[in-house]
Amino acid sequence: MSDNGTRPSGDTLYDGDLFKHDAVNQLMGLEDIDGSPVAPAEMRSWLFFGSTCSPITGVAFGFFIPLIIQALSAGSGFESTDHSKPCNTTAANFSCVVQMGSLYIDTTSVYFYSVTIAAILQMFLFVALGSLADHGATRKKLMLNFSIAGAVACILFPAITRNDQYWLGLILLIIVSVSVGMSWVFVYAYLPLLSRMSPAFLIHAHDKSLTPDQLTDELEVVTNHISGRGFAWGSVADVFLLLVISVLAMFFTPPASLPSTYALQVGIAVCGIFWLQGIFVAHRWLRERPGPPLPEGANLFTFSLKKVGTAISKFRELRNLFLFLLGWAMYSDAFGTLSTVAILLAQSVLGFTTIDTLILAFEVFICAFVGIFFFKTLQTYSKLSSKRILQIQSLMYIVIPLWGLIGLIPGSPIGFKAKIEVFVLSGVHGLLIGATQSTCRTLFSQLLPPGCESEFFSLYEITDRGASFIGPLIVAAIDDHTSNKLNAFYFLMVTFSLAFILFSFVDIEKGIQEGRAYGRKDRRLDRR
After folding, report:
1. Strand, coil or helix: what is 82?
2. Angle at Cα 116 formed by Cα 238 and Cα 326, nearest 5°?
3. Helix, strand, or coil (residue 105)
4. 391 against 235, higher pLDDT
5. For residue 400, is pLDDT > 90?
6. pLDDT for 39-61, tens place per residue?
7. What angle do CA 133, 135, 140 make, to 5 degrees?
8. Cα distances (angstroms) measured from residue 80 to each of 95, 104, 373, 416
9. Hey, where are the domains in the chain?
10. pLDDT confidence band for 14 (50 / 70 / 90)
């Protein structure tokens, strides 16, 4: 189809007979989706847009926004043991609180509680808007509008010129978090569409001798490739933005009247400007790829809520998809919380400087880039399934909180007691973080009912961003009520272990069949 919904003519990769192929109909499922082959410019625009979102989650939230919020709140806070004394942030293993109303909250917990609020807001938006992107020409518009809001909020971070304006930082944090989370919903929703209409897959789709299972295998290869490229582009963008922020941190000395984190705040603004470039490219070259119109008589504001509610109620029909989602909820919450716990622990307990943090960030992103290709090569030569690769990755993640718990043993010389341990285990985290997200995204896209991409990717983001308030909330409570930040690793150890168990019970082949059947049934209901 063209952007106005008409199918192209004379294309060597598409003709009217394509959807007469029974295997293609079973796999792709729908006659009224945009069936236009993906042009190189469109694929590059999608990859580039995703790469401009990546530094927001990877660089800004992965390292610097937590440090900025903790430093600003500590700069206007008090010693936790004596609320009459200003916080001494130069002391080793400092512990400070900030007053909010009648409450005194640990300065580390301030960030986690803010992320919890953002996650809850995202959850409501995911539910309310997810299904709308599968109908009509709204997917691209929503993606770009949320991105504009997030980019502007990033650019406003340098407006925080005093420590006691940390509240403004919290507001901007919430806006950016919600905006980038919603943007990722629509970025992810494009993946199965672009994979199914990729020339690399359409060549196989024309082969009428292939069975649905054989086409599924070919689609998995194509989806893995596109997903891996997406994370590779994102890793390159992360390192590029990190270089820019490093130069700012090393050569830009803010006046004494400004917060000590001001160079990092300018760095967040640079991330926002970079995000705007992705918005322009996507607006120019990414196709809308509209879905069918809303069913006759459907209410714009309640349709998505009903669709998500219906999808959740179909647990028995999509058992493996929901089992995967439950595992993903725990897994993404665990590795997302782990990253923030590690960086705040490194700063407040081990005395990491800004330069130490920048080196750590470079290590993680370089390892992430290597990790994507390492696991892709491992899968290619070992012939291991994506599910088996995910099991290996989740087992490796369990090692990190286990190491942290060793530090709770009295007299133990290891267990995040020295900076070198943080650098070594952050390298492990880096090798896993990009690769495991790519693996999860690939597996989930295979389980999706055709034509319900945004609807179910909104559930994917609900379980990711929505459920992600659990980790920060629990860790914040641990920080507020215990004297040792290593106690957070108990929670992370349990969560990673449960995720591994849940992933092990997912039957991918059966889940694909469940998705196909649901997609055909759902479209028939929409047409009534």
Report:
1. strand
2. 80
3. strand
4. 391
5. yes
6. 899 999 999 999 999 999 888 99
7. 40
8. 6, 8, 46, 23
9. 36-198+207-527
10. very low
95 touches 80 (CB < 8 A): yes
Dist CA 443 CA 509 (whole Å): 11
- Tokens for 209, please give them: 């001798």
Query: Looking at domain 36-198+207-527, what is its CATH homologous superfamily?
Result: MFS general substrate transporter like domains (1.20.1250.20)
Helix (H) or strand (E) holding 100: strand 96-100
Judge whether 56 and 278 are in contact, CB under 8 Å.
no
Separation CA 105–CA 170 (nearest Å): 14
Q: Residue 13: which residues within 8 A CB-CB, separation 6 or more?
A: 37, 199, 202, 203, 206
* pTM > 0.85: yes or no: no
How many residues comprise the chain?
528
DSSP labels for 285-327? HS-----PPPPTT--TTTHHHHHHHHHHHTTTTTHHHHHHHHH
Q: Taking 70 as the threshold, does the pLDDT of residue 276 lie above it?
A: yes
Q: What is the pLDDT of residue 256?
A: 85
Element (H, E) at 239: helix 212-251
Q: Degrees (nearest 5) of the Cα angle 482, 487, 491?
A: 120
Span 306-361, pLDDT tens digits: 776 776 777 778 899 999 999 999 999 899 889 888 888 887 778 788 788 888 98
The residue with tokens 């922020």 is: 245
Residue 129 to residue 127: CA distance in whole angstroms: 6
Burial of 27 (0-12, 13-18, 19+ CB in 10 A): buried
Question: CB neighbours of 75 closer than 8 A, spacing ≥ 6?
Answer: 87, 89, 163, 164, 166, 259, 260
